[in-house]
């Protein structure tokens, strides 16, 4: 059974309580369990003294990487109502925690997926990292019964003149190894992804030549197993890719994913520019310019001796970075936050009809405050000279802010997290800041580990390093309205507004 539904699905199924049997608002209120501080803030405002809200991700925590504990499972199991953001904002173990432990007859709602009918504007998650090699990751697409399904993509065969590794580095630069042919192939050589997700990884090859890597996939969807047969991908490492297979498409730049398609039970190469390509029709170029030295750090000893050269396609984005096609940070557009509030209000009314008057009055008063906030944020950003409305940040959390209020998310090269940035990578970031005459760059307080290179280059260029709040509320003023006011004020102050 699907453990996550929309509001309409709950109502149609008749599982929401009627007025005669709804959980009563007692001294402690309805027990609502949510993933993040932002959702807690909105729910407490609408619910007033009829709700008691408990959040799983702690204050200042990062929902992208939070690892739940057994105590968190107990919290979720006591819920009368549960809210997540989803659209792959939260790390998959957190979503699985909710789907496995929210009681069967309790609404378990993703706000982002439910917000569009209430006027929310969803935008694609656009990634533009100016690498001079292909940016190659893994993806999953296709229908599943549950959002907590897991899809394991396994390396089942590898041929070539040298060894191959595929690994991911977390926000602190620590590698998580998925494949290393030097250790032999086992069933453990797999990367696990949630539905409709993709992730970025590092690929390394020790010798030049032609490599063929064969993969298969298994989807576990609440016990229902789907197998995706093997597919073979060809890599031209340090050799001319156009001489490897006549007529094949050569992937040598841009962004592409080796994608497991659950609907067709097959693999495709999903390229941002060319669409879907059959694995047999593609050669992936790993050119000589991709040569890097193995860093002198114990964590990277699995690659070989420090200083040894190898060919590398970089992860590009710092930290574990699993996401879908839609940007999940809807609330950076205040109009979208209003849609979230509508979803929360209607969910509370469905489960506690006696509280309708309270919930609707609280909603109406708060929506009026959000209208004022929307105008305030717009005015602050309008005060910035148009040429200076450039956003350089550590995290792709501000696309909705840029779209709503007329800013530009500036692209820049994020260095490969497996090694110290090369001179060319630092130069590319420096040139981006210089070419755009960027007045300031912005870091998030809960993501300092990802900001080292950005901070260093900005300081070398005499550019201000300022603060924006993306996924976590300011600890000195922990409300959504405070957060957006601080962001608007900081943008205006740092980028020349008034």
From TrEMBL:
Gene3D superfamilies: Nitrogenase molybdenum iron protein domain. GO terms for cellular component: cell envelope. It holds the Pfam family ZnuA. One of its GO terms (biological process) is cell adhesion. Keywords: Coiled coil, Metal-binding, Signal, Transport. InterPro entries: ABC_LPXTG_lipo_actinobac, AdhesinB, Bact_metal-bind_prot9, Lipoprotein_PsaA-like, Surface-anchored_actinobac, ZnuA-like. Residues 356-383 form a coiled coil. The keyword Signal applies. It is found in: Cell envelope. Residues 1-27 form the signal peptide. GO terms for molecular function: metal ion binding. Belongs to the bacterial solute-binding protein 9 family. This is Anchored repeat ABC transporter, substrate-binding protein.
